[in-house]
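Can you give me the bound-state structure? Components:
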Amino acid sequence: EAGVTQFPSHSVIEKGQTVTLRCDPISGHDNLYWYRRVMGKEIKFLLHFVKESKQDESGMPNNRFLAERTGGTYSTLKVQPAELEDSGVYFCASSQDQGASGNTIYFGEGSWLTVV
Amino acid sequence: AQSVTQLGSHVSVSEGALVLLRCNYSSSVPPYLFWYVQYPNQGLQLLLKYTSAATLVKGINGFEAEFKKSETSFHLTKPSAHMSDAAEYFCAVRGSGYSTLTFGKGTMLLVSP
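Here's the bound-state model for the whole set.
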């Protein structure tokens, strides 16, 4: 069974450009999460989807970030326009039943974003 | 509210020595606790988790962790380090009823021959 897959694995863009990251969760997982780790900092929560609905987007840093999950399947995270401080690793994760907090959250390998 | 503190951003051990990575948590509700590992240029992989069953949890690659409520700790141990254990380790908490994980800052484990 495929795990959480993310694309692209690495991206280098100029300040002011747009980047779209894609995440395919594990099949059957209704819960999808985005996290990120900027250089030297801890991994921080961005937002949480349950199917196609945004359950919690309290971690989104500002309105330059837009996340979507069309049809409750894959998700995209768009950064527009990108700033230097957006550089870091963006992790996508998925899990089954949200109600069981002990359920494992499975992470992808991350999308490494560098803004120059 | 929930938070995690990992003591030591870097821990160095010799191959064959005991590994001890410290994690203390804070949670206003019963916590679920996790250790994840990130090998160089790879994603996050679950090592083990505590979900209110046995307080001593065994994970992959010979790692284990003990949940101590009185000390609000969930330290990760391995009796004998191997070179392949060199990686960054993250402790995370998820309070009952919370949907998200809160991570510590991570501890880089360095293993020398």
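A couple of observations. The radius of gyration of chain A is 13 Å. Residues 54 and 99 of chain A are 16 Å apart (CA to CA).
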